[in-house]
Amino acid sequence: MDGVKRNILLYSFCCCYVFPQYLCTGLHSQTVRFSSQVGIHREQQSICPQISVGEDHFPGFYIMSQFQIAELARRGTVKKVTGTSPQHVAYHIGPTFNFRINSRSAYPSGLPEEFAFVAVLRMSGSTINTNWNIWQMQDVNGMEQLAVRLNGQSQSLEFTFTALDTGRQIIVFGPLPFLFNDQWHKVVLHVNRLSVTLFVDCAKIGSQNIPPRHKVSLDGFTLIGKLKDNPVLAVPFELQSMLIHCDLKRAQAEPCHDLPARTSGNLKSSSSNLCA
Predict the structure, then answer these.
(1) Residue 245: which of 176, 210, 197 has the closest Cα?
(2) Distance (Å, rounded) from C-alpha 182 to C-alpha 266?
(3) Spatial contact of 251 and 188, defined as CB atoms under 8 Å apart
(4) pLDDT band at residue 197, thresholds of 50, 70 and 90?
(5) Which residue from 250, 253, 189, 256 is spatially nearest to 50, judged by alpha carbons?
(6) How far is Cα 228 from Cα 132, in angstroms, rounded to an integer?
(7) Helix, strand, or coil here: 245?
(8) Of the candidates 85, 156, 120, 61, which has an alpha carbon nearest to the alpha carbon of residue 254?
(9) Are 259 and 185 in contact (CB under 8 A)?
(10) What percent of the chain lies above the pLDDT cut of 90?
(11) How confident is residue 180, by pLDDT bands cut at 50, 70 and 90?
């Protein structure tokens, strides 16, 4: 009987003291990892507000709203045009209006280290052969800090940034002849911590490694649709959407079924040799 009592006491001791410590140790390690993820998520939320584009809700910045393009259209400063389908509204940008705003007003807490730049646009006329910035951030002296550029002369897309050790850097994707025409195209540029990946009309074009980047100064200006060599001059083009996604997976998941270029065989055959 004494043996039975000893076994009962030993079992009770293990249940009350020994097992809970092991269980708590496991739960504690899980809690630490979870808290770290929550911290990162909260940090992203503090930089990237939740925005609404149609029925979509995600963390990011709607560049169309930053430049008040819809309001300018209501005033008659910007002309409305038909977008990728009769259901989509787009806008004719340039060359008469100066699209430049203070960067601090557009990005009060700055840009996240990783983001996706997304634009649905159409070029026509001389713009197809022009070297121009879709989107650009300058410092207070007008020096380029960050830019997404379409170089019609080389038929390439360029991403410009400032590296920590080597200064200004340009990453070139091209040649991309299927992009430089008068059709609607969707350009998605994933900017990761140490790499940049380009998608055109939902097809992956390629990925390139980059060195660590300088943080962008907010004491400057953000511009859209400007000549590369003369940012005072605006470039005429049509714009349906332009935004920055802070959720890269969400940006990549968006479909391209309404793009005319996506249904043609030109994109697939032209980009097959460029995909990483």
Answers:
(1) 197
(2) 14
(3) yes
(4) very high
(5) 250
(6) 5
(7) strand
(8) 120
(9) yes
(10) 65
(11) very high
